[in-house]
TrEMBL record:
Pfam families: AhpC-TSA
Gene Ontology CC entries for this record: cytoplasm
Entries under SUPFAM superfamilies matching the protein: Thioredoxin-like (SSF52833)
Keywords of this entry: Antioxidant, Disulfide bond, Oxidoreductase, Peroxidase, Redox-active center
Active site as annotated: 43 (cysteine sulfenic acid (-soh) intermediate)
Any one GO molecular-function label of the UniProt entry: thioredoxin peroxidase activity
Full protein name: thioredoxin-dependent peroxiredoxin
Function summary: Thiol-specific peroxidase that catalyzes the reduction of hydrogen peroxide and organic hydroperoxides to water and alcohols, respectively. Plays a role in cell protection against oxidative stress by detoxifying peroxides and as sensor of hydrogen peroxide-mediated signaling events.
Family: Belongs to the peroxiredoxin family. BCP/PrxQ subfamily.
Xref: PANTHER family: AHPC_TSA FAMILY PROTEIN, THIOREDOXIN-DEPENDENT PEROXIDE REDUCTASE
Subunit relationships: Monomer.
BP GO terms, sorted: cell redox homeostasis; cellular response to oxidative stress
Documented EC number(s): 1.11.1.24
Length: 152
């Protein structure tokens, strides 16, 4: 599934710290990054990288939203444990993951299971998917996304 140049699927999801986030209510570019699970090594590294560069994304007018199927309570623990400074949204039902095509069949140790494919979407200020990254490798990824935001 390629969403590039398509309208970003809309959503309202609960977030860490209470409240909800509605995609269509955010002004400016949005970085939606989908990750498999709170407090695992790759997901922690990615969240820390986005947090470290959050001021640069904000200066470029962009909002960062991390999305997984973890609960809001799990997000709160993850945020507090690692001092994260980005919004973490809970897609517990997996509906948003399905609409973005990131809920996929994965293989680990020879076994097949369903899970979130680490993916990032850059949604421009008009609500269109400007760019997407699938099967993301964490090292260097946040810098690449930041460059794409700055190029808008």
């Amino acid at each position: 599934m390629d969403l590039t140049n398509e309208p970003a699927p809309g959503f309202t999801l609960p977030r860490d710290g209470d409240g909800t986030v509605t995609l269509s209510e955010i002004d400016g570019p949005v970085i939606l990054y989908f990750y498999p699970r709170d407090d695992t090594s790759g997901c922690t590294a990615e969240a820390l990288d986005f947090t470290a560069r959050a001021a640069e994304f904000e200066a470029a007018g962009a909002t960062i939203l991390g999305i997984s199927k973890d609960s809001v309570a799990q997000h709160d623990k993850f945020r507090d444990k690692h001092g994260l400074g980005i919004a973490l949204l809970s897609d517990a039902a997996g509906d948003v993951c399905e609409r973005y095509g990131v809920w996929v069949e994965k293989k680990m140790y020879g076994k097949t299971h369903m899970g979130i494919e680490r993916s990032t979407f850059l949604v421009d200020g008009s609500g269109r998917v400007e760019r997407e990254w699938r099967k993301v490798k964490v090292p260097g990824h946040v810098e690449e996304v930041l460059e794409a935001v700055k190029a808008l």
